[in-house]
Amino acid sequence: MNDVILRQLPYLRRFARALLGRQVPADALVAKALDAARADLPDGADDPRAVRRSLLRALVDAHSAETPPVTDELTVSDEAIVASRIRTLPRDPGLALLLASLEELDASSIGFVMRCSVARAKALLAEAQRILDEQAATDILVIEDEPVIAMDIASIIRQAGHRVVGIAATREQAVAMAEAQPPGLILADIKLADDSSGIKAVDDILQLLVAARPGGMAIPVVFITAYPERLLHGERLEPSLLITKPFGEHLLRVAIAQALQMSGPPQQTTA
């Protein structure tokens, strides 16, 4: 496999995981995308940005395979036409927002990946932002051992309209806080102050609380790490939603929104 493709693979797997929320189907989607992309990439392709765009396009194509394609003239400028197409494909705004936030693509690149015009890509992003702004609030537990980062995360959460039920620096603190005030979402760093794992802290919390939720619905989780490639190698159970340090406010808001969307209506527990 081309070395450039290999270097992009962890990030392609991260995007598939954010899109689907589950490791096994996400990895299967990546496998299909790789098979398709290798046939389309020119021999000796070595531009990482071009390779990433082509891989993402192949992944989106594979994801959309079950949905009849919607043709899109490149000269479309009528916003009503664009809006009507958005309504027939409700998942597209979220997809466009993930491409913009997680992959940092501009409207032109999003149009390339989604096989649509730049005008439609911009309309999808606008629709996604509207949906994001209207999302119901939930209670969020922050597991982060660096005080400055923890305060920054808490500020972003509150500005987005959600509530912070606690900030834990260790695995033990996290479990105790979750037991005292069950969250609707968990946002966790990977490595904690006591050298314990944020993933293990989340596992403890989920075992403790999932059974108590209506229908046994899992609590959505967003993990944060400075080294995503170390977690996305397919050798063990991996996080479903993963964002990379340093991150911006918008990316964190999008990750929270995507996690809540994948899990269903948010749990609201704070009086």
Account of the protein in words:
This protein is α/β, with parallel strands linked by helices and 271 residues long. The chain has 2 domains: 3-133, Up-down Bundle (Butyryl-CoA Dehydrogenase, subunit A, domain 3); 136-263, Response regulator (Rossmann fold), CATH 3.40.50.2300. Helix content is 54%, strand content 9%. It contains 11 helices and 5 strands. The chain has a 5-stranded parallel β-sheet with strand order 2-1-3-4-5, sandwiched between helices. Helix 10 links the parallel strand 3 and strand 4. Helix 9 (171-180) runs parallel beside helix 10 (198-209). The chain is globular and about 55 Å long. The model is unreliable at 67-90 and 265-271 (pLDDT under 50).
Topology (SSEs and partners):
Layout: H1 3-20, H2 23-40, H3 48-63, H4 79-88, H5 92-101, H6 107-114, H7 118-134, E1 139-143, H8 147-159, E2 163-168, H9 171-180, E3 185-189, H10 198-209, E4 221-225, E5 242-244, H11 249-263
Parallel strand pairs: 1-2, 1-3, 3-4, 4-5
Helix pairs in contact: 1-2, 1-3, 2-3, 3-6, 4-7, 5-7, 5-11, 6-7, 9-10
